[in-house]
Amino acid sequence: MVTDCLAVRGANPKKTGNIMNTKHRILITSALLGTLLLAGCSGEPPEAPETVRPVKAFQVLDAGERVTRSFPGRARAHNEVDLGFRVAGQLLELPNDLVGQVFKTGELIARLDPRDYEVRAEDVRSQLERARATARRAQSDYQREQNIFKEEPGATSKTAVENKLAARDESVAEVNSLRASLDAAQDELKYTYLKAPFDGAITAKYVDNFQNVRAKEKVVRLLDSSRIEMVVNIPENAISNLPNVTGITVTFDAFPEHPVPAEVFEVGKEASLTTRTYPVTLIMNQPEDFTILAGMAGRARGLRKQVTEMEATGVQVPVGAVFTPETEKQDYVWVIDASTGTVSKRAVVTGALERAGIQILEGLKPGDWVATAGVYTLREGQQVSIMAAGE
Predict the structure, then answer these.
(1) Average pLDDT taken over every residue of the chain
(2) 128 and 70 in one domain?
(3) Do residues 378 and 334 touch, judged by C-beta distance below 8 A?
(4) pLDDT in tens, 65-91
(5) Do the domain assignments include residue 88?
(6) Domain holding 353: CATH number?
(7) Do the Cβ atoms of 305 and 244 come closer than 8 Å?
(8) DSSP-derived 3-state class of residue 362
(9) Cα 19 from chain centre
(10) 0.70 surpassed by pTM
(11) Which domain holds residue 11?
(12) Closest Cα to residue 342, out of 391, 376, 385?
């Protein structure tokens, strides 16, 4: 290409006239000539930008901390209930667009036709008023009969006094019975109103408006998603370590970059006969920047504290993060600068080799990111990106 370029630059029209006739020279436009010169005579091509290399990495922990195994589970609402009326009747108020609506504690969700219960309550109230009047008369009759017996014993008898007393007591018992019946009738009237027992949203509606429903028949489902639960099953050989686990987080499949802090809410006291695992219920607050819905799958993780004297110093990294060049006796790791995305070689002092990794006594601190794979093929200042879990 360079030779051709020089030939074009240095060509003499007189010497080349026999080869290229005038007609052909006219067809070679200045634009084509400029293109050839730029293509062949522009010098060295620009260097391609460096490819960012993805690497597996590990964030350094205290030597007294170990990442526990992760356990799968599914989210569920902290409070969820199927609501129904405690009495039977015909639905009078049940909106068609109820699903998805949010209710505060005590707000009305649905209502039955209350007329039958209003009539019953009014009838019992009337009976109670009559019974009270009867009881007042019976009390007066008993008092008068007793006074007569005291003042003129011959004008009446002790038996007559006792009969008046029995009539008085019977009327009082009738009043008490009707008062209880009125309370029950008023309660039944209140039960024609279905109200939210806690803040939540309606997620299902099982019946339609104007339909006759039985007592305790499911009408709607109310779910409180302000707090989320997840049940994970812990093997029997690991359940004893649960009190030493801290920093529990749950990462949901739908939001892999956003671990949610959680805490232990309840621990099952009996293992499953088939899986030999214990159910552990975790609880967490609903995040502010995204919403966890019931049924979402995720995995729970935590940090298990160690208290042995040997593990009380230094930090710990996977064994694959440490390398020793052939020409040296010094151990190194590749430290990743999260702000620039570059790696730099750092000398370290290693300690004991443990089941979960190797101790680093000097050279690293908690929070550092180190490469854990391909350490012999990295170079100083190379651009890298930290691979996500499972990538």
Answers:
(1) 83
(2) no
(3) yes
(4) 555 678 999 999 888 899 999 999 999
(5) no
(6) 2.40.420.20
(7) yes
(8) strand
(9) 82
(10) no
(11) 2-41
(12) 385
